[in-house]
Amino acid sequence: MDTDEPRFDVPGMLINGEWIPTGENGRSEVRAPYDGSLVAQVPAAGPRDVDHAVRAAADALRRDDFPRADRVRVLEQTAAALNDRRDHFARAIALEAAKPLKTARVEAARAVETFAFAAAEARRFTGEVVAMDATPPGAGKTGFTLRVPVGVVAAISPFNFPLNLVAHKVAPAIAAGCPVVLKPASQTPVSAILLAELLDGLGVPSGWINVVTGGGGTVGDALATHDDVAYVTFTGSAEVGWGMAAKAARKKVRLELGSNSPLIVDSPSDWRTAASKAAVAGFAHAGQSCISTQRIYLHHDIADDFLEEMLPRVEDLRLGDPLDEHTDVSCLITRDDTARVKEWVQEAVTAGAKLLTGGEAAQNGVFRPTVLEGPPPNTRVQCEEVFGPVVTVTRYDEFDEALHLADDSRYGLQAGVFTSDLGKALKAARSLHFGGVLINEVPTVRADQQPYGGVRDSGNTREGPAYAIQEMTEPRLITLQP
């Protein structure tokens, strides 16, 4: 269904405290992935718009007119205002990202927590005392460090969490005292603009929050390589992220990238809980999460029982319109992604995988939740990030074999392990090369205050307000000589 009336009337992009309705390249449409309806019209920015925004941010940094007490107030008031408007933001998320409404509400609630944690950290982050007199050259000196802003932050966010992943970049930057230029994903800019509108209304001084809307190849590259940008925070694909880091080699470029998260279910373990959680964790938001459960490794002793428990739950997931209160799984972000996921599934089946459920597209770009057993290691559903509602199952005999299979990946974001054996749990925690190892939990869990990030091709940073603030500031040594 197409309509010429936008669902949201957004003011444009925010640069230096002014709302600009049209960009260097005119305007572009944001359409709902599910039914093609017009969600909003937004500016299509270009390099000149980026330069304008970055210069405004650099001027704000030089003015230094947003003291910590004011930043704390804004963060706290933003958390309260977001809480009051959760349903409004959830509807925007559901429309622009095709995230089921009940899941979108969870994202909106998490954004409230992200701002609240950033406010708490803004009150307390500080430097440290340095024991200068521990060596003869420091005798008589008093030393301490200040945490000072690293500079202008370029924040480039993805489509799949269009509010909370923006919050994870913007809120710590405000707390740290870094002016921000935000480029939201071109498919999902509405939530970010609504958030910027809220921040602007709470009295953020001009230039401290800027939002530039447009494509990654124009706006994203221009932003990441601008001379006045000191810090780039990017969430997205490994290929784009590492390419951006190569172009901006002299900057601090912090990447939160993809994964193909493994889940090991051992025997003995609480495999029933693992099965019920995996039936959701592999398919929430149609599998379009960096930590979506993708590869499941089952001990032979419990594999049949696990599948008997899990498969009916997967088949009972409700498919359809993201605005329907009962929908569990809606469409992928584009029809090309639906076609890609289908191609990968067919490739695996041709290579010898057994299709246990799903494997086909439904209406409006929805792909049926799919479980494959035994795909060869070199098939894309097994070795790459599907970013779709597909889970693979592999059986194993020995726990060490499961650890090896789980770790045999170019990614390393989060892994989950279900086991009743404390020794095995500790061994997994020590040996799995991932940013997080979750014991008796699926890997598709993130608390917004945790250090979140990966290794290998999954990135090079840790998000979570306290950890992001540390990265967005740098220590400045001060010594006092009487």
Automatic annotation (TrEMBL):
The keyword Oxidoreductase applies. Gene3D superfamilies: Aldehyde Dehydrogenase, Chain A, domain 1, Aldehyde Dehydrogenase, Chain A, domain 2. PANTHER family: ALDEHYDE DEHYDROGENASE (PTHR42991). InterPro entries: Ald_DH/histidinol_DH, Ald_DH_C, Ald_DH_N, Aldehyde_DH_dom, ALDH-related_metabolic_enz. One of its GO terms (molecular function) is lactaldehyde dehydrogenase (NAD+) activity. Residues 20-476 form the Aldehyde dehydrogenase domain. Coiled coil: none annotated. This is Acyl-CoA reductase-like NAD-dependent aldehyde dehydrogenase.
